[in-house]
Amino acid sequence: MASVTDLIQMRRDMIKDTPPKPFLIGVAGGSASGKSTVCAKIMEQLGQEGVETNKRRVVIVSQESFYKELSKDEAEVARKGNFNFDHPDAFDSDKTLETLQKIKAAEIVEIPVYDSVNATGKSRSISIYPADVIMFEGILTLYSKEIRDMLDMKLFVDSDSDTRLSRRVIRDTQERGRDLEQVLATYTNFVKPAFEEFCLPTKKYADVIIPRGSENTVAIGLIVQHIKDILSGNTTSEIDGAIIDSSTRQRH
Ligand SMILES: [N-]=[N+]=N[C@@H]1[C@H](O)[C@@H](CO)O[C@H]1n1ccc(=O)[nH]c1=O
Predict the structure, then answer these.
(1) Does the beta carbon of 169 sit less than 6 angstroms from any atom of ligand 1?
(2) Does the pLDDT at position 134 exceed 60?
(3) What is the DSSP string of 164-229?
């Protein structure tokens, strides 16, 4: 009669041969909360030291890739800073879900790279190849239940709103060539209200909330270690539990 340890090892050997299903992480948080930087740091720390098997492939998918294309009138309104890019309806939720399902099924997908200066996703697109870890980052990545249910880990980057506003002012005036008055008006009219109505309420769905965003090296380190443990099968997952449970049943 094989011991429990043998059973668990046999199971782990079986699992090791099958390519791991992509591990999907949702990273939400207010505009300029540091989501992209948190993702970059996690990716860097996962990619750096090879875990047990070969180097992990980690890719970042931005929710901005799924902005609906603007009509001519909407583009005109957007140019004046009067379009609400922070509302859930600004995103194509069907296309988002379909693309994430393909990514989760380890298919190669083509996604647009959003050009926020010209507010279009038509400038260029990139291919996302099958990866071990996919980080889906954006202000409303935890908003839809269908997407939440697909995620293996949900993170919320929780930076103070004054920090986020000051970053936006610098980013939008310097990198996106907008004037200060328009940036502040857009923030007051759309970004702040939409954050409070649609983004902040999704914090309750997070598995880990990261106060202070990318400066929080302890939180990022814990998250990276947990992902590594899951990828290298070191966690006592439900599979092990099932074996132990079945063997005790046999013992009676
Ligand atoms: N305006 N505004 N706010 C949104 C949102 O807060 C953030 C994340 O999508 O990017 C901003 N955003 C998005 C598309 C765009 O063309 N311009 C832009 O500034």
Answers:
(1) no
(2) yes
(3) HHHHHHHIIIIIS---HHHHHHHIIIIIHHHIIIIIGGGGGG-SEEEETGGG-HHHHHHHHHHHHH
For a mutational test of ligand 1's pocket, the pick from 68, 83, 86, i.e. the residue with the most ligand atoms closer than 8 A to its C-beta, is 86
Could you tell me the pTM of the whole model? 0.84
Cβ 140 under 6 angstroms from ligand 1: no
pLDDT tens, residue by residue, 61-118: 999 999 999 999 999 998 888 999 999 999 999 999 999 999 999 999 999 999 988 8
Contact of 187 with 162, CB cutoff 8 Å? no
Span 45-57, average pLDDT: 58
Residue 51 pLDDT grade (very low, low, confident, very high; cuts 50, 70, 90): very low
Q: How many helices (H) and strands (E) does the chain have?
A: 10, 7
Q: What is the 3-state secondary structure (H, E, C) of 29-76?
A: ECCCCCHHHHHHHHHHHHHHCCCCCCCCCEEEEEHHHHECCCCHHHHH
Q: What is the pLDDT of residues 233-246, one digit of tens each?
A: 766 444 444 443 44
66: left (phi over 0), alpha (psi -120 to 50) or beta: alpha
Does residue 101 sit in helix, strand or coil? helix
Distance from Cα 94 to the centre of ligand 1, integer Å: 20
71: tokens are 């009509």
Averaged pLDDT for residues 168-183: 90
Strands 153-158 and 58-62: unpaired
